[in-house]
Design a protein that fits this description.
heterodimer; A: mainly alpha; Rna Polymerase Sigma Factor, Chain: A; globular; B: alpha+beta; Jelly Rolls; 3 domains; eight-stranded antiparallel beta sheet; 27 strands; 35% strand
Chain lengths: 173, 560
């Protein structure tokens, strides 16, 4: 394989699995902005290690191994910041998160009909909170409800979505 | 649904909203540690959040009315939550692909192309310790790393504007100035430069630097071929393996010790110098044959022996000082870790007159090289590694001091010195995961009601860049002033007064461990494993609170 062909295949694989890497890193860090940083670092490390890239071998296990290392390094290097998980838990959960992250695209496919099935009112709450990234307080102010009522509603909607996604995934497989 | 899972869901919602406090975070971790079903739920919820986030990015979610535009003004977005950065993933990735494409082009264009271009203008920045850069939120984080390491310092006197560096520090691109002495710099490309003071130097990248003034010797192994030093508009490109430069206002003296060097200069033919050849370049840029060789430059092996000399002198100085310290009547116990025999499992108590009763028993921990190559230390690595000691008697004030090399802080509590039972009057001296020194003494009998122990914490002092470096740690407990003072490398980290109701006036040790905790009071608890991941060289316990000057003297005489 010549160098440019190799790079092309590498970039194609990396592009294809970008969202799965994001799902993996976000799940362990619990913060979208940090997750973006760490995914980017992971991309860079993968690129530097392109010599180890083998087009005929599965890309994801290799990429997850590097991502795992980057997550742990991030936790270690930012010890004074607040994280949801500590390094030990991140390691414990890493394997299970990988398994789920592999099927992230399936989760997204399963999620869409679940979103469409929401009531208009619930759909509106999800739109505001997740698609327009409004704070819970702003959402509450907009829909004229108090913060704790919005939280209870969001909690219920999230649980419904999670269950619906699991159901759809189970039916598919 | 189980109440614990419901609790976890609700905690996660708070976390996402940026509203979860530290106790809440601890609770999340506790639930996850103990419950496999909770872990599965957690992973599903996180995946759902990732999917929602990715959906948000692919969907066109332009607000439909003016009111909605107003509702999501920029300051609000900034204030709200990290999630308020739409399209970040996608955007970043595209930027990244652009960078990757640039790399490919560079690669195809060939390595030597750089010689054709003008020197890259890197804005001069202060030489910085790699890890002391602020916690970067920016997208440039992955790019901001050092270009070289300081690997040796001999008789160094820094320029007054130069931050003082230590061996092992990473150097970022930027200026480096010394008044006298030698600094050995290893560039990440593999080239080694020895700079002789007075000198002013500027690092551009892992394979390029500039001499403003002073003398240097560069050693360039085959892997680092192409390593370039700039002097004004001249570039000295090493084709392997060793050359010397002396730069003064009068001109530049280039001398090839071994191998070949190319000299590039605008509007001049490239000159090739080979082993033994030397050239003088005047301030006007004109080359002329060097009529006399410049004064010999110190080489790596010379520097090594000078360094060794300095090293030995420091070791001898410590030994003399330590011999005197061992006679200090306030010493309760003292371990010099200077036994030579690696099979000896006894850690000799070094106080003078000797007291064999205070010898420690080494369990697991292996002998390693200490602060000096001629001296030993003990390495604590595995959860079982420790030194057992037994100290009878009752005391009042105490001082703990040791030289420690911390590899990393893996445990929630990382032990320096812990009494077995942590009973009334017994001290615990350890380092928290957060890098804070932690000292406490239990005020009442275990199991009896009464005030809790006062947990005296220093501010975080540890950062990963200190890994592998010898640090002097000390803590004094003063019953007269009711204060606890933490020290790092002879300087006060913090001083706290203990409230009267939590104050303890009689202290005891009994059986205890260095580098571990032998009798966890709650064996199942997740903080039961407290082994240090690192090495300890010298350890001293005094039955008095040493003054800040005395602690400083310990540091200064023991510095490697």
């Amino acid at each position: 394989m010549d160098a440019s062909n190799r790079s092309e295949q590498f970039v194609q694989q990396l592009t294809e699995h970008q969202n799965r890497l994001y799902g993996y890193v976000y799940s362990l860090l619990g913060d979208h902005s940090r997750a973006s940083d760490v995914v980017q670092e992971t991309n860079l490390v993968l690129w530097r290690k392109i010599d180890e890239f083998q087009a005929d071998k599965p890309f994801l296990p290799w990429a997850f191994a590097i991502a795992r290392f980057q997550v742990l390094a991030h936790l270690r290097d930012h010890q004074r910041d607040r994280f949801l998980l500590d390094a030990e838990l991140a390691e414990t959960l890493s394997e299970e998160v990988q398994q789920q992250a592999i099927q992230l695209e399936a989760v997204r496919d399963a999620l869409r009909p679940c979103m469409d099935a929401l009531t208009a009112e619930h759909r509106d709450l999800i739109d505001r909170r997740y698609f327009r990234a409004m704070s819970v307080a702003d959402v509450a102010a907009d829909v004229n409800r108090n913060v704790s009522a919005v939280k209870v509603a969001l909690l219920r909607i999230r649980r419904n979505l999670a269950n619906c996604v699991q159901k759809n995934l189970a039916e598919e497989s | 649904m189980q109440p614990q899972l419901e609790e976890l869901e609700s905690l996660l919602l708070d976390w996402e909203a940026g509203e979860l406090d530290p106790p809440g975070i601890d609770r999340v971790r506790e639930i996850l540690r103990g419950d496999a079903a909770a872990r599965t739920l957690f992973v599903r919820m996180q995946m759902l959040s990732s999917a929602l986030k990715l959906e948000a990015e692919t969907r066109i979610t332009a607000p439909t009315t003016r009111a909605e535009v107003a509702a999501t003004t920029l300051p609000q977005r900034r204030a709200a939550h990290p999630a308020a950065r739409p399209s970040l993933v996608a955007l970043r990735f595209h930027q990244w692909i652009a960078v990757a494409a640039a790399f490919v082009i560079c690669m195809l264009a060939g390595r030597l192309a750089y010689l054709e271009f003008a020197p890259v203008s890197v804005p001069p920045t202060e030489a910085a310790r790699a890890a002391s850069s602020p916690p970067a939120e920016s997208s440039h984080e992955a790019m901001s790393h050092g270009v070289a390491l300081v690997t040796r310092l001999v008789d160094i006197v820094w320029d007054q504007d130069q931050s003082h560096l230590e061996v092992g520090d990473a150097l970022a691109a930027g200026r480096l100035a010394i008044d006298s002495g030698y600094v050995q710099i290893e560039f990440f490309c593999g080239a080694t430069v020895i700079l002789e003071g007075p000198a002013e130097f500027e690092l551009f990248s892992a394979e390029r630097a500039r001499v403003i003034s002073g003398r240097l010797r560069a050693h360039v192994p085959p892997a680092a071929r192409g390593f370039t030093i700039d002097v004004d508009d001249m570039q000295v490109v090493d084709l392997g393996t060793e050359f010397g430069l002396a730069v003064s206002p009068a001109g530049t003296h280039v001398q090839v010790i071994d191998g070949e060097v190319e000299l590039h200069q605008p509007a001049q033919q490239t000159r090739l110098l080979t082993a033994g050849q030397a050239l003088l370049r005047g301030a006007d840029g004109v080359y002329q044959a060097a009529t006399q060789p410049h004064a010999p430059l110190v080489g790596i092996t010379d520097l090594e022996s000078r360094d060794q000399g300095q090293h030995t002198a420091r070791y001898e100085r410590w030994k003399a000082w330590s011999a005197q310290l061992r006679r200090d009547p306030r010493l309760v116990t003292y371990y010099g870790f200077d036994e030579a025999d690696s099979w000896e499992r006894r850690l000799t108590c070094g106080i003078d007159p000797p007291n064999g009763e205070l010898d420690g028993a080494i369990v697991g921990a292996g002998r390693v090289t200490g602060r000096w190559s001629t001296k030993g230390a003990l390495e604590f690595k595995r959860p079982g590694d420790r030194v057992r000691i037994q100290i009878p008697g009752e005391f009042q004030s105490l001082t703990f001091a040791c030289w420690a090399k911390i590899d990393s802080l893996d445990r929630r509590f990382n032990s320096l010195f812990l009494t077995d039972n942590y009973n009334q009057g017994e001290p615990h001296w350890q380092i928290l995961e957060s890098g804070q020194l932690y000292f406490s003494v239990r005020p009442v009998e275990r199991g009896t009601p009464g005030p809790h122990d006062r947990k005296v914490l220093s501010p975080p002092f540890w950062e990963p860049s200190m890994s592998g470096r010898w640090l002097h740690l000390a803590t004094t407990f003063n019953v007269e002033t009711k204060t606890v003072t933490h020290f790092l490398n002879g300087e006060i980290l913090s001083q706290d007064r203990i409230p009267d109701e939590q104050m303890v006036f009689t202290t005891r040790i009994g059986t205890a461990s260095i580098g571990n905790w032998s009798i966890p009071t709650q064996p199942e608890a997740q903080f039961a494993i407290r082994n240090l991941n690192g090495s300890i060289d010298e350890f001293a316990l005094f039955s008095a609170a040493l003054t800040a000057d005395e602690i400083k003297a310990m540091y200064e005489h023991g510095q490697p």
